[in-house]
Design goal:
five-stranded parallel β-sheet, alpha/beta, globular, 348 residues, 15 helices, two-stranded antiparallel sheet
């Protein structure tokens, strides 16, 4: 009887060990797959130019570390895609990838979204709510438009990054969260430091590695490569039989300046796929590119170019804020803030 029980117990142990080994092999296989996954596999991060090849090489080098990364570049260059590639290539790939756009919310809402709040912390706080800091535990926290974070909140976040502890709004319990920080901005943060709008200590803390994403106009050959990729993507998604572009359409794509970068190209191709009725997208499907082509002269600063681009987009849509925000692929609140910040006025 004793021998029978011992044998049964041994069989249970063997079964548990076998399951554990199988799970371990599965985890190792999945981890290896993530390590081998190139950034080109993450969404629209497709590249063939030397400029983007340098970016992807840097991403592969820094992804396995746990260092903070600051992604800089113009709007629409693919900073979130690069952030996701960094997360996918890290040891935290199994953990959550938590995103928050710091420029799309008011200061009070942003503070609650980041730190969370307890029940009754403010009017309307009917229930306790976790913040993005808690949600990112074990994974990556991506702060998009980090240049828009208010000065005081920069100090609060700096303390979190230094000691790993924080409290929810209206709470007293100290919480901890282990996350990797990746930030992105199209703003000139050193200039904002000089203006007193951004803390130097916070800047140096989030900028262990800086990755500068080149604008599409500096990525030789990538317009054609990306356009072809987007055609295949949207044609498959919409069930359309579209094989590519006519030679004239390709020339239109190459001549356009793409002030909205990859995001604008994606939107243009999606629209062309929707309205195309032939096997190839032709000039008629892209005629609006010539009508809305920016006339921004070379030599302008990034701020001046952004102002010019927003002004042209607003005028092309009769100053309809909602339609313009959709065309620029930003939320309405962000566009409204930019209009106010740049002092743009609708012509009388």
């Amino acid at each position: 009887m004793v021998q029978a029980l011992s044998l049964a117990a041994l069989l249970v142990v063997i079964e548990k060990v076998a399951k554990q080994l199988a799970l371990q092999r599965e985890n190792e296989a999945l981890r290896e797959h993530i390590r081998q996954m190139t950034p080109e596999c993450t969404g629209d991060l497709v590249a063939g130019s030397h400029a983007m090849a340098n970016v992807l090489e840097m991403v592969q080098d820094i992804a396995p570390t746990d260092a903070a990364v600051l992604l800089t570049g113009e709007t629409g260059t693919g900073k979130e895609l690069v952030a996701r590639a960094i997360h996918a290539g890290s040891e935290r790939a199994y953990g959550p990838f938590v995103v928050i756009n710091c420029g799309a919310q008011s200061d009070s809402l942003l503070e609650s979204a980041l730190f969370g709040h307890e029940k009754g912390a403010f009017t309307g706080a009917a229930n306790a709510q976790r913040g993005r800091l808690e949600m990112a535990d074990g994974g990556t926290l991506f702060l998009d438009e980090v240049g828009e974070i208010p000065h005081k909140m920069q100090l609060d976040l700096l303390r979190v990054l230094e000691d790993g502890e924080f409290t929810r709004l209206g709470g007293t319990q100290s919480l901890r969260s282990d996350f990797r920080l990746v930030c992105a901005t199209h703003r000139d943060l050193p200039a904002r430091i000089q203006e007193g709008a951004f803390r130097a200590d916070f800047y140096y803390r989030i900028n262990v590695f800086e990755v500068k994403l080149p604008p599409l106009r500096e990525r030789d050959g990538d317009v054609a490569l990306l356009a072809s990729y987007f055609v295949d993507h949207f044609a498959a998604k919409l069930g359309r039989n579209i094989e590519g572009f006519t030679p004239e359409a390709k020339r239109l794509l190459q001549r356009y300046a793409w002030p909205g970068n990859v995001r604008e190209l994606r939107n243009v191709v999606e629209r062309a796929v929707v309205i195309c009725r032939d096997a190839h997208i032709g000039a008629p499907e892209l005629s609006f590119l010539e009508a809305t082509a920016p006339t921004t002269p070379t030599g302008l600063s990034l701020r001046e170019a952004e102002i010019r681009h927003i002004q042209q987009a607003l005028e092309a849509r009769n100053w309809n804020i909602t339609r313009t925000a959709m065309a620029l692929d930003v939320d309405r609140a962000t566009l409204s803030r930019k209009i106010k910040r740049f002092g743009l006025r609708r012509p009388s």
